[in-house]
Write a structure and sequence with these properties.
single chain; 512 residues; alpha/beta; seven-stranded mixed β-sheet; five-stranded parallel β-sheet; disordered N terminus; binds 2-aminohexanedioic acid
Length: 512
């Protein structure tokens, strides 16, 4: 039901202290005054934590490097055993971890459970991978020679993650890096350090009980951007994986590249759906609504642009606006809620600025208003906005991290594809069609220029098995899935001569 004045958020049934207790962890060693953690559900304070200084980062990297030197010698399947045990522990505590994630991040419980499931899934994936870190043999041009490619552990991974997927993105990189033989440091978002301490705490606990795991294999750096910069600049951090804004990635990527470290960047998206006249309308509606409003529009894969065929535009948009009007907006702990709060006031202000800009650029805004919660002035709940635009104006080409769906229309498919590709970001895209030619064209070299190209599903909710990331200002990195494990290893090409002569490559003669 559409409830214009939703009930005040339920008091949390579980406190953060209780949840940590259930996980067998304690926050005692992390207490401090530098970082106040609040819940977006009602703005209440959850914890006050100490942070790490830039000087402490040096010592942390040195410890990680020492751990790596031991860990690289452990056989990969035995490294997988560590991840297997972690995955079992996450399974055991799935509900408590999901609640903590919801309390700290504000995503609805079913999505929090989905995120914890992603952590479990990537553990299974990484365990399998630990027996499949294949190299290959290559045909040598010389007689009685063998050319082989090896994949070896790389070094220390520094992983910078965002508030919106406070656990899964870390797990994608870290579990894979661990089976690849790397050490790992995690710099989580300052908005979600508790989720980080919980997941890393469980992994540390498993590592402490695993005789083959060295000390300090997995560490957490709490702090502001300076901690991330310290990782980006440090010559002993071999690979830096960063998920977040384009602006952050431009800084981190350049810093890592300057010292010839390896950056993996997964940055902004401005994801579009093309809805064609042959689309299954009910399916397209459900797909677009979840993609546009899930996680309150705060996924990097959130649907931000809908490019609908002129012939069906009016009826489709009318149904979309009506459906968004029926979404339950309120406490994410309430199982009936569809859309929880924005992360904070800055996100709300950014959303309102974008809506004002859209209006001034000719847009007609439906929804988008704040929904006040009695007694929680610091909680920012909004009705997702549907914004009819006269064209792909400046604001439409920007990523605003909030639930705003811009509506554009088209008449020819190639025009829709040009609009879809006509932004600087290139993360995710989709088409709703039952026409096989349209579906194929969209996925082809002439179609979407994004890293993720979906047919008859929305832009968000990628599975862990596929390479995740995108092109253009999205950064080009693939954090997990497919063969992206290679990002966490180094390649060595070995040529072995098992003859008694010494033929040189390319037929070079050098007779002594
Ligand atoms: C992100 O928002 O940074 O594809 C990650 C999805 C999720 C991950 C999103 N599996 O929507």
């Amino acid at each position: 039901p559409n409830d214009a004045s939703p009930s005040a958020p339920r008091a949390f049934t579980r406190s953060v202290g209780d949840l940590f207790g259930e996980l067998g962890l304690s926050l005692d060693a992390h207490q401090g005054s530098a970082l106040t953690v609040t819940s977006p559900i009602d703005g209440s304070t959850l914890a006050s934590l100490r942070t790490d200084s830039a000087d402490e980062m040096d010592a942390m990297v040195a410890r990680a490097r020492t751990a790596f030197l031991d860990w690289r010698a452990v056989p990969a399947p035995h490294r997988g055993e560590l991840v297997r045990r972690f995955g079992l522990l996450v399974r055991e505590h799935k509900e408590a971890l999901s609640q903590l994630l919801t309390i700290e991040n504000g995503k609805i419980l079913t999505e929090a459970r989905g995120e914890v499931q992603e952590v479990i899934d990537i553990c299974d994936y990484a365990v399998g991978l630990s027996r499949q870190l294949f190299g290959m043999t290559i045909a040598s041009e010389r007689a009685e020679h063998r050319l082989t490619e090896y994949w070896h552990p790389l070094g220390v991974l520094g992983l910078i993650s965002a508030f919106n997927f406070p656990a899964a993105v870390w797990a994608w990189g870290t579990t894979v890096a661990l089976v690849c033989g790397d050490g790992a440091i995690w710099k989580p978002s300052e908005k979600t350090p508790l989720t980080a301490l919980a997941f890393a705490g469980l992994l540390q606990k498993v590592a402490a009980d695993y005789e083959q795991a060295p000390e300090n294999l997995v560490q957490v750096a709490l702090g502001d951007a300076a901690c991330g910069i310290a990782l980006a600049d440090h010559p002993d951090v071999a690979v830096v994986s960063a998920t977040g804004s384009v602006r952050m990635g431009q800084d981190v990527g350049v810093r890592v590249q300057r010292r010839f470290g390896r950056p993996i960047l997964e940055l902004g998206g401005n994801n579009a759906a093309i809805v064609t006249p042959s689309a299954d309308v009910a399916l397209a509606l459900r797909g677009t609504i979840f993609a546009a409003t899930g996680t309150c529009g705060q996924r990097c894969t959130t649907l931000r642009r809908l490019i609908v065929h002129e012939d069906i535009r009016e009826s489709f948009v009318r149904r979309l606006i009506a459906a968004v009007g029926t979404l339950n907006i309120g406490s994410p702990l309430d199982e009936a809620t569809h859309v929880g709060p924005l992360i904070d006031k800055a996100a709300f202000d950014g959303m309102q600025r974008a809506l004002d800009a859209a209006r001034s650029q000719g847009g007609i805004v439906h929804g988008g208003e704040r929904i006040e919660q009695a007694g929680s002035p610091e909680a920012y709940y909004v009705r997702p906005a549907i914004v009819e635009m006269p064209g792909q104006t400046e604001i439409v080409r920007e990523e605003t991290f909030a639930p705003i769906l811009y509506i554009l229309s088209y008449t020819e498919l190639d025009q829709a594809i040009a609009l879809q590709n006509g932004v600087s970001q290139g993360l995710s895209s989709c088409i709703f069609t039952r026409d096989v030619l349209e579906a194929e064209r969209f996925q082809s070299a002439l179609g979407s220029d994004c890293g993720i190209v979906n047919v008859n599903i929305g832009t968000s909710g990628a599975e862990i098995g596929g390479a995740f990331g995108g092109e253009k200002v999205t950064g080009g990195g693939r954090v997990s899935g497919s063969d992206s494990w290679k990002n966490y290893m180094r390649r060595a090409t070995a040529t072995v001569n098992y003859s008694t002569s010494l033929p040189l490559a390319q037929g070079v003669k050098f007779d002594l």
